[in-house]
């Protein structure tokens, strides 16, 4: 499915003056840094093994009592400051690790941000959550339901990862990223281009937390040991991720009328270094055009892309006027891609994660 195609393409697009435009960005990672050496001390692994297979040297973990909403609030505050406006008409939170199974975490985040009674809700698409949230926020703006939307993607992934499973414990980490979107024109810097989204529920068990939902709670059977933790089929996921991210990227570029040579920066979901390299190779995008922070922050789930954008803008690796291709893959299975031209934004402080 492609969202927001230009009218010239012969399919419905956003109204001329209600196109979603990014006007603020912010990111946050919790202060506790966990290095490879810290993990080697308790797992059957090595720094070389982790770096070679994932590209990760360090990551940030939440401390006791810290939840997804705490990360989301911090990123939201930074995005609102960057937008130079504390008022929005709606809050969309993309997360796989809500504070509670019920209720949604979005309303709590909106309340803590002092946003009054604005509509707020969660979107769940695992690591593709930001792109699904981007399409949702764009729909709110295009329909006239909101003029400004705060989109936050936040995950405390370490709360669902088995700390003794080296295949996942070395990869996943915690963090949040956020953008503020306003109604504008398609030719403005920051305007979100066509968004391509897809899913394949027949392969849902490739990435899953088997226990804890209504499927297991509706039976008298006790969950198997470890079923309360995140599980994934690594090799199969690698193939699916590379294929889906490449295809959706090509579709988004075609819908936007861009060529691969037009892309100044590729902002992929920071799954692991091997997937990033394979996708970039298939798209023929050289390393100088790839944004990456996986070495410093690991895989932060739905937060990955907006955190990457915030940190890259702060460091100068992402500059106003550059054409950006976004792409992600996650559980569901879900995937997606989008294009945008990076705007000139206000301050977007993020902690030093070097």
TrEMBL record:
<feature type="active site">
    <location>
        <position position="269"/>
    </location>
</feature>
<dbReference type="GO" id="GO:0033818">
    <property type="term" value="F:beta-ketoacyl-acyl-carrier-protein synthase III activity"/>
</dbReference>
<dbReference type="Pfam" id="PF08541">
    <property type="entry name" value="ACP_syn_III_C"/>
</dbReference>
<comment type="function">
    <text>Catalyzes the condensation reaction of fatty acid synthesis by the addition to an acyl acceptor of two carbons from malonyl-ACP. Catalyzes the first condensation reaction which initiates fatty acid synthesis and may therefore play a role in governing the total rate of fatty acid production. Possesses both acetoacetyl-ACP synthase and acetyl transacylase activities. Its substrate specificity determines the biosynthesis of branched-chain and/or straight-chain of fatty acids.</text>
</comment>
<dbReference type="GO" id="GO:0044550">
    <property type="term" value="P:secondary metabolite biosynthetic process"/>
</dbReference>
<keyword id="KW-0012">Acyltransferase</keyword>
<dbReference type="GO" id="GO:0004315">
    <property type="term" value="F:3-oxoacyl-[acyl-carrier-protein] synthase activity"/>
</dbReference>
<feature type="region of interest" description="ACP-binding">
    <location>
        <begin position="270"/>
        <end position="274"/>
    </location>
</feature>
<keyword id="KW-0511">Multifunctional enzyme</keyword>
<comment type="subunit">
    <text>Homodimer.</text>
</comment>
<feature type="active site">
    <location>
        <position position="299"/>
    </location>
</feature>
<keyword id="KW-0443">Lipid metabolism</keyword>
<dbReference type="GO" id="GO:0005737">
    <property type="term" value="C:cytoplasm"/>
</dbReference>
<comment type="pathway">
    <text>Lipid metabolism; fatty acid biosynthesis.</text>
</comment>
<dbReference type="InterPro" id="IPR013751">
    <property type="entry name" value="ACP_syn_III_N"/>
</dbReference>
<comment type="similarity">
    <text>Belongs to the thiolase-like superfamily. FabH family.</text>
</comment>
<keyword id="KW-0963">Cytoplasm</keyword>
<keyword id="KW-0275">Fatty acid biosynthesis</keyword>
<dbReference type="InterPro" id="IPR016039">
    <property type="entry name" value="Thiolase-like"/>
</dbReference>
<dbReference type="Pfam" id="PF08545">
    <property type="entry name" value="ACP_syn_III"/>
</dbReference>
<feature type="domain" description="Beta-ketoacyl-[acyl-carrier-protein] synthase III C-terminal">
    <location>
        <begin position="253"/>
        <end position="342"/>
    </location>
</feature>
<keyword id="KW-0276">Fatty acid metabolism</keyword>
<dbReference type="GO" id="GO:0006633">
    <property type="term" value="P:fatty acid biosynthetic process"/>
</dbReference>
<keyword id="KW-0808">Transferase</keyword>
<feature type="active site">
    <location>
        <position position="127"/>
    </location>
</feature>
<keyword id="KW-0444">Lipid biosynthesis</keyword>
<dbReference type="InterPro" id="IPR004655">
    <property type="entry name" value="FabH"/>
</dbReference>
<protein>
    <recommendedName>
        <fullName>Beta-ketoacyl-[acyl-carrier-protein] synthase III</fullName>
        <ecNumber>2.3.1.180</ecNumber>
    </recommendedName>
</protein>
<dbReference type="InterPro" id="IPR013747">
    <property type="entry name" value="ACP_syn_III_C"/>
</dbReference>
<feature type="domain" description="Beta-ketoacyl-[acyl-carrier-protein] synthase III N-terminal">
    <location>
        <begin position="121"/>
        <end position="201"/>
    </location>
</feature>
């Amino acid at each position: 499915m492609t969202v927001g195609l230009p009218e010239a393409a012969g399919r419905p697009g956003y109204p001329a003056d209600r196109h979603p435009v990014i006007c603020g960005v912010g990111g946050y990672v919790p202060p506790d840094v966990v290095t490879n050496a810290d993990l080697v001390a308790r797992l059957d692994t090595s720094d070389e093994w982790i770096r070679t297979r994932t590209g990760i040297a360090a990551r940030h973990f939440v401390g006791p009592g810290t939840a997804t909403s705490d990360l989301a609030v911090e990123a939201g505050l930074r995005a609102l400051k960057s937008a130079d406006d504390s008022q929005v008409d709606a809050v969309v939170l993309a997360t796989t690790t809500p504070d509670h199974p019920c209720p949604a975490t979005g309303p709590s985040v909106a309340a803590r941000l002092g946003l009054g009674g604005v509509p707020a809700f969660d979107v769940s698409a695992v690591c593709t959550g930001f792109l699904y949230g981007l399409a949702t926020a764009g729909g709110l703006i295009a329909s006239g339901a909101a003029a400004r939307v705060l989109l936050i993607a936040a995950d405390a992934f370490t709360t669902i990862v088995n700390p003794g499973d080296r295949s996942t414990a070395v990869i996943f980490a915690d963090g949040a990223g956020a953008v503020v979107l306003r109604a504008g024109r398609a030719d403005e810097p920051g305007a979100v281009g066509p968004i391509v989204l897809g899913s394949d529920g027949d392969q849902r068990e490739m990435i899953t937390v088997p226990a804890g939902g209504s499927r297991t709670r509706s039976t008298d059977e006790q969950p198997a040991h470890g079923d309360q933790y995140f599980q994934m089929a690594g090799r199969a996921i690698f193939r699916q991720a590379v294929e889906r991210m490449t295809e959706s990227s090509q579709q988004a570029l075609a819908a936007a009328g861009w060529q691969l040579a037009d892309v100044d920066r590729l902002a992929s979901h920071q799954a692991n270094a091997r997937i990033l390299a394979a996708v970039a190779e298939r798209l023929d995008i050289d390393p100088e055009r790839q944004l990456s922070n996986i070495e410093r922050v690991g895989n932060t789930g739905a937060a990955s892309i907006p955190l990457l954008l915030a940190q890259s803008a702060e460091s100068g690796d992402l500059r106003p006027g550059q054409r950006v291709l976004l792409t992600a893959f996650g559980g569901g299975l879900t995937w997606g891609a989008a294009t945008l031209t990076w705007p000139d934004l206000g301050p977007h402080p993020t902690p030093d994660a070097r």
